[in-house]
Amino acid sequence: MTAPRDDATDALRDSLARWLADRIDLNHHARADAPPAGPAWAGLASDLGLLGAGFTEGAGGLAADAAEAWRNHLAICETLGEWLSAEPYIGSAVVGGGLLQRAGTATAQAVLAELIDGRALLAWAHAEPGARGDPADVSAALLPGEGRAEWLLHGRKTAVVAAPWATHLVVSARRAGQAGDAAGLDLILLPLNAAGISRRDTRTLDCGVASEIAFDGVAVAQADLLAPAGQAGPAIARALDEAALALCAESLGTTRRLFDATRSHLRERQQFGQPLAAFQVLQHRLADMHIARELAAALVAAVGVQIADATLTPEARALAVSSAKVAVGKACQRVGEQAVQMHGGMGVTEELAVGRFFRRALQIERSAGSSGQHLLRIVSLQHSSP
């Protein structure tokens, strides 16, 4: 099954690809010893008008309905993956924007409008040190405040992507229960410069930037909440599933580059007077890479259709997303490893883009839940179904 494609989505994809091609030189991009490149976030709105493509017209976006919004989300993520772009689209638009759209509060609507026109950039602060991948594994605490602060936020978050450039944080915390309890969770929208927030940045495996963020008595008002008090568990689970699917789409661009580079290398490289592509064993390995990627692409497209359906149950959504994430994890590993091996020693150098795409593929396989974690969730969901 494949997702329906339309001219508007293809035009969006082509426009973004041309815009990125003018700004990113893959031969000199994101070296491990180079300073981290910041996103050109505002340009996505001012040059392309693209940041509204993943939101419906009712929310101030450009999409006619949820299905078109998700087609656009997936097309954008795939194209960004194809260029190893630093644009934090998943955390800011897919997760942050999705939560703001569904919250519907005055504050959320105002920040969503700023996001769509490029003035706001959101970072998703959910993972915590020592967390085990459970959406409810949240220890950050929302405690009763004093004076003008209704609550005070304490805790730490890790692996917060794009925090150095963000204007706002979307933070998960709990006001009741213990880590692992589905009840008692909150979602909070905070400006990054709020008093009591501190940040430490680190480089990631794929030469990106992620931050650890500490909250030391940050004042939180009722207007900052994005879900009914203590009832944000379902919203967090949905946001994590949507982030995982968007990451799957990004992997399709990454693995396409790996496959295309390997195919070109085999056609150009000569051995024993003939191109490497003439050897049958290498043809078979190239075919394995192609099949792994195409299977993953078909599954991601099918889940993209499902996730836009408002009647989809949380269990069905989780099963579909985990299935796609497992297929993508296998494709990332299969395509990445084969690409590096068939390039020989060049495949792990900084000078060749293949090595950087491989590191990004590995990062994707381990992000938003590893393949093993999603396999366990599939088994759990299948055993719990009537």
SSE order and pairing:
Blueprint: H1 7-21, H2 41-46, H3 66-82, H4 89-103, H5 106-116, E1 122-125, E2 141-144, E3 151-161, E4 168-174, E5 185-191, E6 197-203, E7 209-220, H6 233-268, E8 270-271, E9 274-275, H7 280-307, H8 314-343, H9 353-366, H10 371-384
Parallel strand pairs: 1-4
Antiparallel strand pairs: 2-3, 3-7, 4-5, 6-7, 8-9
The DSSP helix count reads: 10
Global outline: globular
**Average pLDDT for all residues:** 92
* Helix/strand order, N-terminal first: HHHHHEEEEEEEHEEHHHH
The quaternary state of the protein chains shown equals: single chain
Strand content: 5-15%
The major β-sheet equals: 4 strands, antiparallel
Alpha-carbon distance between the termini? Answer: 26 Å
Rg: 21 Å
Q: Helix content range of the residues, please?
A: 40-55%
Give the neighbour order of strands across the main sheet: 2-3-7-6
Number of strands: 9
**Could you list the spans in which at least 5 consecutive residues all have pLDDT below 50?**
none
What class do helices, strands and sheet pairing give?
alpha+beta
What does this structure look like?
The protein has 386 residues and is an alpha+beta fold. The mean pLDDT is 92. Helix content is 48%, strand content 15%. It is globular, with a radius of gyration of 21 Å.
Give a short overview.
The protein is an alpha+beta fold and 386 residues long. The protein contains ten helices and nine strands. The strands form three sheets. Strands 2-3-7-6 form a four-stranded antiparallel sheet, with no helix packed on it. A three-stranded mixed sheet has the order 1-4-5, covered by helices on one side.
